[in-house]
Amino acid sequence: MSKIYFEMNDKEKQLRHIGDNIDYAICMFSEGLSGTGEYNIPSEEVRELHNRITDNLLKAYDGINILLKAVEEKEEVGQTLIFNSIGGATEINDIKDCEVYHVREAEGINGTEIVFHNTQSGMYRNLMIDDDGELSISQWY
Predict the structure, then answer these.
(1) Which residues are within 8 A (CB) of 127 and not within 5 positions of it... i.e. 6 or more apart?
(2) Maximum CA extent, the chain
(3) Domain end: 36, 52, 77, which one?
(4) Staple partner for 102: which of 70, 94, 96, 115, CB 3.0–4.6 Å?
């Protein structure tokens, strides 16, 4: 599944970045490093090292892709959020130390959904505001 950067969660962003760097390194070793400078070891040994490095990078790249797919699948299969009406200030107080992660139109109702991210715990919580002004909030995930 291909997502734009702002649709990815933190793990997806990190894994994608690592995978891109590994992909770049594979290309560089496969094409041969260019530029000035000489090795002080025989050419055959350089080729063997390049091949071994490329093989290990390919294995690492495969592993990164498995992790990336697992993160994406978990998000797709993830639980449906359950929203509870806000009856007091305690629920709102829970999100006071959070940053706004994403704002979008709410699905299934006429209103707005605001996703909050707690940077200390790494967890998220959604706040729904319907067009009538009623607030509801999801559990942490």
Answers:
(1) 95, 113, 114, 116, 135, 136, 137, 138
(2) 76
(3) 77
(4) 115
